[in-house]
Request: fold
Amino acid sequence: MSQEPEEVGVDEELEEIKERILMALETVIDPELGIDIVNLGLVYEVDFAKDTGDTIIKMTLTTMGCPLADVLTENIHDALAEVDEVNKIEVKLVWYPAWTTDRMSRYARIALGIR
Reply:
């Protein structure tokens, strides 16, 4: 069954908003590593409800018990304030799957000297 043209437009708009959310998250720098949380692979999922603007960021940290969780959460709230469609923001820390350097982008690997 094919999608109606209106549904395709809604999907494209939703993806565009999610892309802007990810771009905003790229401004959130991990203070210990000096690389943004997206390129470090810490952001696992972005859920955005177009009708309410509610946004849930599912992410992890490089280590459990990392003392920077509150700092990163605050920086995420600040960064997403720049995305007009975002209303309520919830940051959910998840520990599965566990973060490894395999989740890092090529850029982050080069910046940190990891092969």
Strands lie at 43-48, 55-59, 89-93.
